[in-house]
Amino acid sequence: MLDGVNLSLMIGPAVPIPVGKDVLDALDKVEVTSAAGQPSGFQLTFKLERDSPIAALFLLSGGSPVPLVRVIIAVTLNGVTEVLMDGVMTHHQLNPGGGDGKATLTVTGEDLSRVMNFVDFSGLPYPAMPPELRVLAILGKYAVFGIVPMVIPTAFLDVPNPLERIPRHNGTDLAYINELAEQAGYVFYVEPGPLPGVSHAYWGPDIKVGPAQPALHVNADVQTNVESINFAYDDRQAELPVVYIQNSFTKVPIPIPVPDVSLINPPLGLVPPIPKRVTPITGLAKANPVQALLFGLARRSRMSEAVSATGSLDVVRYGHVLRSRGLVGLRGAGTLFDGLYYVKSVTHTLERGSFKQRFTLTRNGLVSTVASV
Predict the structure, then answer these.
(1) How confident is the model at residue 360 (pLDDT cuts 50, 70, 90)?
(2) What's the CA dihedral at 313, 314, 319, 322 to 10 degrees?
(3) 43, 52, 50: which is closest to 20 by C-alpha?
(4) Domains 5-115 and 119-204 share a fold
(5) What's the pLDDT at 137?
(6) Domain assignments of the chain as residue spans, ordered by start
(7) 5-115 falls under which CATH superfamily?
(8) What is the average pLDDT score of the chain?
């Protein structure tokens, strides 16, 4: 589709295969969105002759959620293959077109977490199994889709005594995994790659540390690789969460203020927003202090992202594929906004002769905490 960029599209039930040249020739636009806190999604747009058999094939194969029609979208940039999406089709829309004789077929879908949301397993028992083992047992059913579990044990091992309590499944697999993640102050998502046909299902704390992606440059003459960027500072959501735990002997609730940083969520800005209110977090009376604090840290991490940046870039000029749920450096925006950011969302848009990305970056304060990026 573009010099230096090769697109790979694979479609099929369970194990997708590369599509034929006629399908690639009809492909007009690819859009993939990946964002923290929500499932990833994709949209494929085809320009077809009105009587093209491709339209009938897509509509018939995607008319119901079972059998699943799986889609893998990958790009190769400078010899490096990046898997943008491994998911399933969820919706089809056909526009007969106008005077040009071309019909438009739009196929939308979500990542592989969608397949975990079809069957309700309510009531399934998990005797003497802590939350992390329950998550591993659930994810094991999806190995056929190439999903590899990445489960981080909770800080406090909670093994229920089967003589007193047996945890039971509640809702679909996806709903129950998300419920367990919320109780632990964790996140859950399915990320494609690193190879086509393989994904990892992450259940653990929302980690905002690690190696940074290649820096974004603004106002840097020939080094500029960002087409547009806008910054915002909004401290209205800044709050000081307070968790309450119950003393097992006196039954008196003990308030614990939650700090705004942790080892997995270090400060990315030197000047954090000042909390405007104190917010009690209820429902943790039976939790131990470590569990309550982890839940509070996750809550404050989401509410302290006062600085945000939205923009777009040309991938070929950037030289890399910017990925969400990681760190990236920014240069040339001035003292207040330079430094490291957490990539909250990225939308990849591929058209003939073009590969662009729209992104949203966030962090918890102004002025960089690092000398250079």
Answers:
(1) very high
(2) 40
(3) 52
(4) no
(5) 96
(6) 5-115, 119-204, 211-373
(7) Trypsin-like serine proteases (2.40.10.10)
(8) 86
The amino acid at 177:
I
Q: How far is it, in rounded angstroms, from Cα 149 to Cα 137?
A: 10
Phi-psi region of 219 (alpha: psi -120 to 50; beta: other; left: phi over 0): left
Task: Assess contact for 309 and 229: CB atoms under 8 A.
Answer: yes
Using CB atoms within 10 A of its CB, is residue 222 exposed (0-12), middle (13-18) or buried (19+)?
exposed
Q: Which two tokens stand for residue 336?
A: 């207040």
Residue in 314, 76, 34, 298 with CA at minimum distance from that of residue 191: 34
Q: How far apart are CA 108 and CA 112, in angstroms?
A: 13
Residues 2-40 have pLDDT tens digits of 667 899 999 988 789 999 888 888 899 999 999 998 999
**DSSP conformation class of 262:** B
pTM, two decimal places = 0.87
Reduced to 3 states, what is the DSSP secondary structure of residue 34? strand
What are the residues facing 106 on neighbouring strands?
45, 93
The residue whose two tokens read 């102050």 is: 185
Q: Give whole-number Cα distances, 202 to 48, 150, 186, in Å.
A: 38, 5, 10
Residues comprising the chain, all counted: 373
- Name the token pair of 178: 């998300």
d(CA 358, CA 312): 4
Instruction: Please state the separation of Cα 169 from the chain's center in Å.
Output: 24
CA separation for the pair 346, 272 (Å, rounded): 25
261 burial class (0-12, 13-18, 19+ CB within 10 angstroms)? middle
| Alpha-helix runs per DSSP H in 216-328 | 289-303, 315-318
Backbone phi and psi for residue 354, each to the nearest 5 degrees, phi listed first: -155, 140
What's the whole-number mean pLDDT along residues 350-355? 93
- At residue 65 the predicted structure's pLDDT band, cuts being 50, 70 and 90, is very low
**CA nearest 368: which of 267, 232, 220?**
267
Q: What is the CATH number of domain 119-204?
A: 3.55.50
